[in-house]
Description:
7 helices, de novo design (two linked rop proteins), 0% strand, disordered C terminus, mainly alpha
Amino acid sequence: MTPFVIVVVVVLVLLVIIIAAIYNGLIRRRNQVDNAWSQIDVQIKRRHDLIPNLIETVKDYMQYEQETLTNVTKARQMAVDAGAQGPQAQAQAENALTQTLRSLFAVVENYPDLKANQNVMSLQEELTATENKISFARQFYNDSVMSFNMKIQTFPNNMIAGMFNFSERQFFQADEADKEVPKVDLR
């Protein structure tokens, strides 16, 4: 074998190793994003499962608030249906559900017996804990998406990503109302 052939073979082997390393890194990041999305999905399903229990518990007390209960039920169903439509649709539906839950909890404040009910308090605590878990899962997902998107946009990864059809992922965006700082009036 001539020295030229040996150099060409070594360069080709190194090139294949580099391409394989970049490809495997992209696969790891993509799987991390998929895992992060699964964690959000688990918490969202838990949230969706808690809502019918809450509705069932409060409906006898809130006979004059059927519209609020109906809105929560509809928002829950829309959020469940949006699950297969991707992060952006899921985020919008979940944000709408959050708004209707806030209105439900505001109405609950008008019913002292309901506010003192142990089942309602327990369900509210579980929903609050689930909301916190969703927030943490959303943050992890968005961090994973950012890392993955940066990886497929930088050179030489972008060349390999293009060859193997890796595409950017969407962030799980918070609702504009969730970004506002709540106003507290202590009068």
